[in-house]
Amino acid sequence: MNKIDAPLVVEAFYGISSPWAYLGFPRLREIVAKEGARLVLRPIRIIQANGGIPLRTRPVARQAYHRVELLRWREFLRLPLNLEPKFYPCRTIEPAARLVIAADRQGFDGAALSWGIQSALWSEDRDIADPATLCSLVEECIGTDGKALMATSDTPEVMGAWLDNLQDAERLGIFGTPTYVFDNELFWGQDRLDFLERKLQSVKNFDPAPNVPSVLS
Fold first, then answer.
1. How far apart are CA 18 and CA 76, in angstroms?
2. pLDDT tens-digit series, residues 146-185
């Protein structure tokens, strides 16, 4: 199988509580679908070993500018987003992240669940660290038993997948979220989605054997 025949796969390494991942998620899904690619969700947290800095530990000036940018993008994208959500920063994001992994592994729509969790945090003031809230979101977003799916998110297989995501992110040089990976290239931030789209198009349209005029008469 040559490069042009290989399936197009975009891996999304993202923190499920990241406002930038939330803001970019609808367009990411739109681009991937339009270009005929497959989206692989790989929830992570900030990779501090590579220089990632959690928001609450950043200098006040950077936190203030973070707020300004959120306001700009909220208005530009016309997405609902609370600038001061009740349950952010989250007490933990790991249960929610592993729940998305578990949903994907069982053939459910992990993207729909992820979007529901992200929306719950950023536009509905719901606590995504609360198990009861997560169970409710499972039932609302993918229509299956929340408690049953929550139970599978603690299995060795799902825990292993979560750890693999973190290890692969560190190995790839990822530090912040969201970071989209395609064709061994990193695209950090939802404001790089234009570049991801162009890369997908360039690979999709790549001609491995262009027509060359014959020199023979």
1. 18
2. 999 999 999 999 999 999 999 999 999 999 999 999 999 9
Residue indicated by tokens 């290890």 = 167
Q: Quick one: tokens of 112? A: 């729909």
Q: Point out which residues pair with 188 in neighbouring strands.
A: 179
Order of strands across the sheet that contains 38-43: 38-43, 9-14, 179-182, 185-188
Which residue from 206, 188, 205, 187 is spatially nearest to 196, judged by alpha carbons? 187
Sequence-distant (≥ 6) Cβ neighbours of residue 110 within 8 angstroms: 41, 100, 101, 103, 104
Beta strands 179-182 and 9-14: pairing type? antiparallel
Rounded Cα distance, 51 and 92, in Å? 20
Is 158 within 8 Å of 105 (Cβ atoms)? yes
Label the pairing between strands 185-188 and 179-182.
Answer: antiparallel
Global pTM value = 0.90
Residue in the block written with tokens 């995504």: 128
